[in-house]
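Take just one protein record:
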Amino acid sequence: MRHTIYEVLPHGGGPGAKTKWAVKKRTNERATAVYDDKKVAVARGRELAKGEPPSQLIVHTADGKFEEEFTYGSDPFPPKG
């Protein structure tokens, strides 16, 4: 069974611009939604991921690096041991 992955990613920005936050389903080219506040984007991403288990939400930092991950439903890749 495949799982659905949602991501919270920086959107736009650039020199002097405020970073916005996109919630995106990994298989889609376009963002599901864009928010001014990262906390709001993460909350929306969690709602979407929880509604489609098994799923994951991967949150990135403003420079695009991995920050944290949430897994909902059965983890398709549980660690051994």
Notes: The CA atoms of residues 53 and 73 lie 5 Å apart.
